[in-house]
């Protein structure tokens, strides 16, 4: 292999740190601003001779509000769709180049770039004048100050009416709009400088953010100059030259409506200082307050739907009182006092069928919860499966309504009494001795007839027990002798 000539220098060595710099700009449209229609952004285009790469840098402008700096990072930039890249031979003053769909105008270059291009035989175009951004230049201009001479002595007004404020109580009726309502406000009129402030009156749990000021303290315009239909009032602020008349103290009166910045406020009352000021200044004596309170709405009677038969009546009733039903309250004291206290009765089923008349049941009454359960002792070879006949539940008396049910109580159970349980009739034929003992210990809770009936029922048993006891005693005494 033949060695290269001794005077050969590679491109990355010959053009190391040699960069061509061009000054240019591009125009950017601003479609949503009324103060500028386009924006001129200056850029610096750098061409690196060592590897034919380019970069675009935008100088940072203070308070521009635009992210600036590196606009296009260093890379080889495509010139067309055929795969060709930009070369330093394609760059010159006074031309437009398009990079990634954006057109840049080259207006000038530095001294090194000019010397390099001329040494390569490229004829440079004359430099152009850099175009400046019109909005940036407008911001550099001093603001015009408009001073209108006035014969009114504002200092005298300030010294005479400093800290003197007229207070009006007003209401804004916004019920015509969706979710609108009547809202109460306080209008302050400052006599020192004829400014107006509107503050909202908040109530507890009104659901609004605690921002008291609706309209900050300022002079409020009353009449404007007739503007053209194309005047962008939603963007531009109203200047003093466009206001024909401002709001003054004579524009506020009790019982009248006042429109402040598009909102209509009805003034229904004012304070005592405001009344005295209007008496002395304008000779007004009618300050009858207007009653704006609406009568309370008529209470809608809650209609309880009929009981559907599922679950307890108290549990089903909770669905009518809250979205998330809560369990009904229980008598904790009663449950603790009567815990594990159960009254048991022997009952038979009243039925025209002969087979049912022989069936025997045990009715249990739980004193802690006032619930009744019925159990049928299994009898062998009877053909009837015994066991639980009725689970624990509260049994209403026959004839009671679901709106005001009346449940069975211990005083309703006596020997021979009939108990109707959901259409089935049971007759009490016997009871546990604990029932009589409980009645005698709580005589105030039972009628005298019920207690006497239960005593008469257990009297023969007690007599038999006493006789058996005496007989046992005699037998023991005889054996002893």
Structural class: alpha+beta
| Outline type | elongated
Average of per-residue pLDDT values: 85
Major sheet strand order: 4-3-2-1-6-5
Sheet of most strands: 6 strands, antiparallel
Q: What would you say the CATH architecture of the largest domain is?
A: Roll
Query: How many structural units, i.e. domains?
Result: 3
Using only CA atoms, what is the Rg?
A: 51 Å
Helix-strand sequence: HEEEEEEHHHEEEEEEEEHHHEHEEEEEHH
Q: Strand content of the residues, in percent? A: 25-35%
Stretches where pLDDT is under 50 for at least 5 consecutive residues are none
Query: Number of DSSP strands?
Result: 20
**In CATH terms, what is the fold-level topology of the largest domain?**
PH-domain like
Give the helix tally. Answer: 10
Distance between the termini: 151 Å
What is the level 1 CATH name of the largest domain?
Mainly Beta
Residue share in helix: 10-25%
Give structural attributes.
alpha+beta, PH-domain like, 3 domains, six-stranded antiparallel sheet, 10 helices, 20% helix
Description of the molecule:
The protein is α+β, with helices and mostly antiparallel strands. It has three domains: 129 residues, PH-domain like (Roll); 108 residues, PH-domain like, CATH 2.30.29.170; 129 residues, PH-domain like, CATH 2.30.29.170. Helix content is 20%, strand content 29%. The protein has ten helices and 20 strands. It has a six-stranded antiparallel β-sheet, with helices on one face. Strands 10-9-8-7-14-13 form a six-stranded antiparallel β-sheet. The chain is elongated. The model has no long low-confidence stretch (mean pLDDT 85).
